[in-house]
Amino acid sequence: SCVVFCFVFLLQVLNEKKLQEVDSLWKEFETPEKANKIVKLKHFEKFQDTTEALAASTALVEGKLSKNLKKILKKIVAKDAHEQLAVADAKLGGVIKDKLNLSCIHSPMVTELMRGIRSQIEGLITGLPSREMAAMCLGLAHSLSRYKLKFSPDKVDTMIIQAISLLDDLDKELNNYIMRCREWYGWHFPELGKIITDNLTYCKCVRKVGDRSNFASSDVSDILPEEIEADVKAAAEISMGTEVSEEDINNIIHLCDQVIEISEYRTQLYDYLKNRMMAIAPNLTVMVGELVGARLIAHAGSLLNLAKHPASTVQLLGAEKALFRALKTKRDTPKFGLIYHASLVGQTNTKNKGKISRMLAAKTALTIRYDALGENTSAEMGVENRLKVETRLRLLEERGIRRISGTGKALARTDKYQNKSEVKIFDPSGDSTLPAVSKKRKIQEVEEQDTEVAVKAKKFKAEMK
Predict the structure, then answer these.
(1) CA distance 281 to 294
(2) What is the CA radius of gyration of the chain?
């Protein structure tokens, strides 16, 4: 017979023959009476409080053997050491076999049996009202969910997702604020926008000086270089901008304060994100950078979800709309998504971007799995894979064929291929039936003929004399 355990109660199987019919096993658990003919209660032990129940539940979820369960198995099952222990979790069965030397079984039959036991749990365990059973299950479920949410290592990357989303929002707001500031102050001093191109320097300069008439007496050497400062002062004297009131200038300065504060906070947030990425996914950060890596994690939902994606999906993450549009219209599918913004793809010429993005996605998928599932926190794997991609990139750009044998560092000398085969062209002159020689004689031929006739005539006269 088999002994089946579920948390702190053990059930013994009475009829093993019916367990062999896996497809029809559910019929044996349609009613409590039928279920009692298949299994019977062997041992029952109640938890003292919710904390003990939570500890046992978390151990089972993680595939570990709790102290309470270990004691029960030693006492009860040790008597029937020749019996088989049916377990719903194969990992837990392996732990029990190693520590207690008990024979465990895990199969589709066991899964169906556990499903039937859960459906008729109230009939198999007597003396527990259904209302109390539901309340205990609900309380334990809430405690287990709270524990998972609090201690789950997967939730650490939630900070990265929130940080990269906030960084993108700050960039949008900064662009809007700076555009409004330039346009607003441009009515008063339009020439300043062309002279100072850096947005943060522009806002600092406006905040310090205010009205354009103050540029002549103000010292902005701590913000601007000497040459640009001289150009700004010269432009302020001949500016074509309109005059504005002091209240308008104060509002513009307040807007500049907001831009500078948001820019400083953005720098601080970027440093936080960089440190967080190096701590959680160092190899991914080395491969594609902290911003692209954080966007890939945010797009997938978590680092563990991203590790489940194949390399082809990592390559096209962020380009789903273009992919499905291409499949619908039967056109060429996109070659890259978010990975396009990685530095290795950016420094490649247009012709080789697809090849490099494919290779980078393959190596990135390996580093993601190493970061998510590996125990080592070093970035050595990421450095090695990045070096391979850079070597491949260099080969594509040089367009050289390296020697297979030898050092592999020298380029093989290859002569330019030239086609030496002779192509015979058909001569159409053979098809003509007309004489090849023209009937008209040339002037030179006529003159030569006349001279020959004259010479022959002279010879003939000399002979006659």
Answers:
(1) 9
(2) 43
**Cβ pair 342, 293 in contact under 8 A:** no
Cα 430 to Cα 433: distance, rounded to the nearest angstrom: 8
For the chain, what is the largest distance between any 2 Cα atoms, rounded to a whole number of angstroms? 166
Contact, 234 vs 128, CB < 8 A? Answer: no
Best CA proximity match to 104, nearest among 205, 4, 27, 14: 4
SS3 86: strand
* Stated pTM of the model: 0.58
- The rounded distance, in Å, linking the Cα atoms of 425 and 56 is 92
**What is the C-alpha separation between 259 and 177, in angstroms, rounded?**
7
- Beta strands 104-105; 84-86: pairing state: parallel
Amino acid identity, position 366: L
DSSP 8-state code for residue 101: -
pLDDT digits (tens, 9 = 90+) for 325-358: 999 999 999 998 999 999 999 888 888 899 999 9
CB contact at 8 A, 366 and 337: no
Which tens digit of pLDDT belongs to each residue from 165-189?
999 999 999 999 999 999 999 999 9
SS3 at position 236: helix
Asked whether the beta carbons of 183 and 193 are under 8 A apart, the reply is no
Coil, helix or strand for 65?
A: coil
